[in-house]
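lol ok so funny story. i was supposed to be doing the assay writeup but got distracted and ended up predicting the structure for this chain instead. priorities right. anyway since i did it might as well share w the group, maybe its usefull for someone
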Amino acid sequence: MNILNDVHALATVNVEVAQSEIDRVTKDLDEIEPQLESSKKAKAEVGDEIDLTIEATCKDIYQHTRSTLNSAIAHAGDSTLGVPYPGLFGVFDFADDLKEAMLNEISAAVTDCEEHARSKAVGGVNAIKQLGILHLGNEYHDLSFRSDVMFRRRRDALAKEIDLPTELWDLVDWSTLMQRQEKVAGTGMALTLATAVGGRLVGGFGWVDHALSAAKIVGNENLRKLIIPTVILAVVSAAAYVLQQIPQSLPHRLSVKLSAQLDSMDYVHANSTRISSSVRKVLRFPADNLRVGLTRSVEQLGSRRDETLKTRTESQVAFKYFSNLVRNSAHQRTLVADVDLDAHPQAAA
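and the output, tada:
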């Protein structure tokens, strides 16, 4: 009876312990299961969000760089960029200085694009960091990011790749001269035959009318005498005008040649791709770090769930075993208690 009482008591305690363990792990599972599902969902959603963030950032950087560089190249010949014109005898030195100034202007535009990309990279890294803190909390391990180490390269690379010789006909830009002549003509400031006759400056094709009017006034004989001096004056004036327009014509001519050479090098696309690709590489580090963290979180929650399920299974087995032991020990104790040791042996038989 004592042995059965002890077995019954121990079995009852173990049933209570097993039931308590089952209740505990069931509660844990109720907490772990939603966390695991949420973590799996977050892993998929955050992965897609990261990819969208990276693609949008890199697309914006590519388009901004392309637009900025195209504009810088297109407007490189709009002025002399602060390069002083030394005169006709120093025109080729002036051209070399203009080339260097244009290349520096374009290189400065590239630098501005890199600065813009650097700020975008910082914003992208911070956005990914916020996603990590939101979904992983204290478990998120932030990576150190130094934007100042981006885009370290030689700044004279463009100057070495460009070969832009100055030719004599680069000194005259007929399209620029015609545009300026039209503007001058509109204000009555062009030199024509009427200038020699009446001191009036008229431009464009209006000189024909003025020439006919002048012929009527001065007569045919006097007009013949004026033709040669007028032609000489016109040639000298035209040459002087062309030479005078070198500071305006030469930058445009050099800009056109520079633009064509840069286009043949695919310079704008190459730099746009280089800068956006650099930012993409930078953003991949925190993105991959966050993905690893989310994967680790899913794996840890999965391991906790598996361990908890294992513990619950073991506790259920123990509960069943000790419940049977409680029932069997109670039954055996009842049988033993029914034995009458004081009865007559024959009666007992």
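Confidence is low (pLDDT under 50) at residues 180-205, 238-242. The radius of gyration is 46 Å.
back to the writeup now i swear
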